[in-house]
TrEMBL record:
Membrane topology label: Multi-pass membrane protein
Annotated ranges, domain Mechanosensitive ion channel MscS C-terminal: 418-500
Lineage: Bacteria, Pseudomonadati, Bacteroidota, Sphingobacteriia, Sphingobacteriales
Residue ranges of domain Mechanosensitive ion channel MscS in the record: 342-407
Residue numbers spanned by region Disordered: 512-536
Stretches assigned to the Mechanosensitive ion channel transmembrane helices 2/3 domain: 298-339
Superkingdom: Bacteria
Keyword set, alphabetical order: Cell membrane, Membrane, Signal, Transmembrane, Transmembrane helix
Protein name stated in the entry: Mechanosensitive ion channel family protein
Pfam families linked: MS_channel_1st, MS_channel_2nd, MS_channel_3rd
Coiled coil: none
Length: 536
C-alpha cells in the first residue's frame, strides 16, 4: 500500500475521533441521596466492585448531610494525571478515574466537573432541610436522656435513703438486744457512722456510674460527637472485653489449677483424719507419741500446700511476667532479711515439739520464770505465773537454755518438795528429824506414801542443816504447799519447845529468854538472869 494512502487514513481518524458509547449491556449502581438518584457507577475502583463502590460513596455523602457543621462550599475538586478527587476538609468523598469516562461521552475532567457541581447543589438543598429537622429530633432525644438520668438519680437517692433507714432501725434493735444481754453496746454504736459513710460512698459511686454511662448516649445522639461517645464507651467496654477474653483463655489453666488444688486438699484431709485418730488413741504407731500427731499434721499440711503452690505457679495469670517475677523476688528478699528471728523461733518450735520437754498444763521453770504452760505455738510459748501474769517466751530462748518440768513425773513417781532449816548442835538430831516429818505429814497436799524423809545436808560452824523432803502430785499448788509446810514446821517446833534460829545460831543463853511464842512457853516460865561465878 502506498505510504501516501496510509497517511491519509491516519489524518482522517485524527480529525474525526470516534465517540465513546455507553455499552448497552453495562449495569449502573446508583448513588441515592434522600430517595433520589444522584448518579451511577458502572465500574469498580481499587478493590471495590461497582456495587460496593456505590454503597461506600452513598454512606459517605449521607454522613456529610448528617453533620450540622457541613458547608457545601467546602467541597473541593482536584485533578491529577489519572484521577479526579472530590474531598471535604481533607476527607475523600469519591474519585473519578479514566474507566468512568468510558461510560460517558465526556472526558474524565469534564465528568468530574459535572459530578462536583451536581453534588454541591444537591447537598446544599439536602442539608438545609435535614439539619433543622434532625437537630430538633436530636435535641429532643438529648432532653429525654437527661430527664431519664435525673429520674434514675432520684430513684437511687430514694433507694439508698430507704436502705439506710432499714439498716439503722435493724441496727438499733440489735444494739438494744445486745445491751440487755450485757454486751458492750457502745462499741457497736461506734460502728454505725462507718456503715453510714460506706452507704454514702456506694451511693455516690452508683450515681457517678449512671452519669458516666449517660454521657456516651448523649454524645451518640449528635453525629459530630459520636467519636467522643465511642471513646467513652471504649474506656469501659475495652477493659471488660479484655478481662472476659483473658478469662476465657485462662479456663484450661484454671481447670488444671482446680484439679491440683482438689487433689492436694483431699490428701491433706486424709492425713488430718489419720492424725486425729492417732491423737485420740484409736490406733498407735511405734515410737510415735500421740501429742506429736497434730504438730506433724500441721507440718505436712504446710509442705503439701507449698508444693501445690510451686506446681500451680506456672499456671497463674501473669506468672511469666517480668514484673510479677520481680515482685516475687523482692518479697522473698524482704522475707529473708526481716524474718531471721522468726525463722529461728519456728525451727526451735519444731525441735521443742519433738523433744517434748513439756506440754499444755505442765508447771515449768524457764530460766527465772516459773508458771503453767497455757499456750504452745510454732513461734512462742506462754506461761501463766502464780500471780496470774502471762509471760511470752520465744521458742529460741527456751531451746537455748534449761527448762525444769515439775509436772512430768508428778502423777507417777511424785514431785519432791524440800525446804531446809538450821538447828543448833545442842538439839538432838533424832528429835529434829521427827518434828520435820510430823510437820510434812500434817501438810495438805503432801502424799502419805511415799513417806517424807529428812537429810542432814551440812554441818556448819554454828548449826546443822536439816532438809525435809516430801512428795506431792499437784505441782500447780506448789507455792501454797510450801507455805503450809513452813507453817507446820514452825508449829511443830514451837510445840516441842525447840528454837529455830536460822540461818545463824549461837549457844549463849545467860540472861536471854527462849525464842518461841509465849503461848508455847511452859507455865510459870521466867526469863533467866545473868549468872556470875564469883570464885572465878
Amino acid at each position: 500500500m502506498p505510504k501516501f494512502y496510509v497517511l491519509f487514513i491516519c489524518l482522517c481518524i485524527a480529525l474525526n475521533p470516534v465517540k465513546a458509547q455507553k455499552p448497552v449491556t453495562a449495569t449502573g449502581y446508583p448513588v441515592i441521596i434522600n430517595k433520589d438518584t444522584l448518579f451511577a457507577f458502572y465500574t469498580g475502583q481499587g478493590l471495590f466492585t461497582p456495587a460496593e463502590r456505590a454503597q461506600v460513596v452513598t454512606k459517605r455523602i449521607n454522613g456529610l448531610i448528617s453533620r450540622l457543621d457541613f458547608v457545601a462550599d467546602s467541597l473541593k475538586l482536584t485533578h491529577d494525571s489519572t484521577l479526579s478527587v472530590i474531598t471535604y476538609k481533607a476527607e475523600v468523598v469519591f474519585a473519578i478515574n479514566e474507566q468512568d469516562s468510558k461510560f460517558s461521552e465526556l472526558s474524565r475532567k469534564a465528568l468530574a466537573d459535572n459530578y462536583y457541581a451536581l453534588l454541591k447543589q444537591r447537598l446544599k438543598t439536602a442539608t438545609e432541610s435535614y439539619n433543622l429537622k434532625e437537630l430538633a429530633i436530636q435535641v429532643g432525644e438529648a432532653i429525654l436522656v437527661f430527664a431519664l438520668l435525673i429520674l434514675l438519680i432520684w430513684l437511687v437517692n430514694r433507694a439508698f435513703g430507704w436502705l439506710s433507714k432499714r439498716i439503722i432501725g435493724s441496727w438499733n434493735q440489735r444494739v438494744e438486744a445486745l445491751a440487755q444481754k450485757g454486751a458492750p453496746a457502745n462499741y457497736v454504736n461506734r460502728l454505725l457512722p462507718f456503715v453510714n459513710t460506706l452507704l454514702r460512698a456506694v451511693k455516690f459511686a452508683v450515681i457517678i456510674l449512671l452519669v458516666y454511662l449517660a454521657l456516651p448516649v448523649l454524645f451518640y445522639i449528635f453525629p459530630w460527637t459520636k467519636p467522643i461517645a465511642t471513646q467513652l464507651l471504649g474506656y469501659v467496654i475495652n477493659p471488660l472485653k479484655s478481662i472476659a477474653l483473658a478469662f476465657l483463655r485462662y479456663i484450661p489453666n484454671l481447670l488444671t489449677v482446680l484439679v491440683i488444688y482438689m487433689v492436694t486438699r483431699y490428701i491433706v484431709k486424709l492425713i488430718g483424719f489419720i492424725a486425729t485418730e492417732i491423737k485420740n488413741g484409736a490406733f498407735t504407731i511405734k515410737n510415735f507419741y500421740p501429742d506429736w500427731a497434730m504438730p506433724t499434721y500441721n507440718i505436712i499440711r504446710v509442705i503439701l500446700y507449698a508444693f501445690m503452690f510451686v506446681v500451680i505457679f506456672p499456671y497463674l495469670p501473669g506468672s511469666d511476667s517480668k514484673i510479677f517475677q520481680g515482685v516475687t523476688v523482692f518479697l522473698g528478699i524482704l522475707f529473708s532479711f526481716g524474718s531471721s528471728s522468726a525463722i529461728s523461733n519456728m525451727v526451735s518450735g519444731l525441735v521443742l515439739t519433738y523433744m517434748r520437754p513439756f506440754k499444755l498444763g505442765d508447771v515449768v521453770k524457764v530460766g527465772d520464770i516459773m508458771g503453767t504452760v497455757i499456750e504452745k505455738n510454732i513461734l512462742v510459748t506462754r506461761l501463766r505465773t502464780i500471780k496470774n501474769e502471762d509471760i511470752t517466751i520465744p521458742n529460741a530462748t527456751i531451746l537455748g537454755g534449761h527448762t525444769i518440768n515439775y509436772s512430768s513425773t508428778a502423777k507417777t513417781a511424785g514431785l519432791i518438795l524440800n525446804t531446809t532449816i538450821t538447828i543448833g548442835y545442842d538439839a538432838p538430831w533424832q528429835q529434829i528429824q521427827q518434828l520435820l516429818i510430823n510437820a510434812a505429814e500434817a501438810t495438805e497436799g503432801i502424799l502419805p506414801e511415799p513417806k517424807p524423809f529428812v537429810l542432814q545436808t551440812a554441818l556448819n560452824d554454828f548449826n546443822v542443816s536439816y532438809q525435809v523432803n516430801a512428795y506431792t502430785n499437784n505441782p500447780g499448788i506448789m507455792a501454797i504447799t510450801y507455805s503450809a509446810l513452813n507453817r507446820n514446821i514452825q508449829d511443830k517446833f514451837n510445840e516441842a519447845g525447840v528454837e529455830i534460829m536460822s540461818p545463824h545460831f549461837t549457844s549463849l543463853r545467860d540472861g536471854n529468854g527462849i525464842q518461841i511464842p509465849d503461848n508455847y512457853k511452859p507455865d510459870g516460865y521466867k526469863t533467866p538472869g545473868f549468872g556470875f561465878n564469883k570464885d572465878k
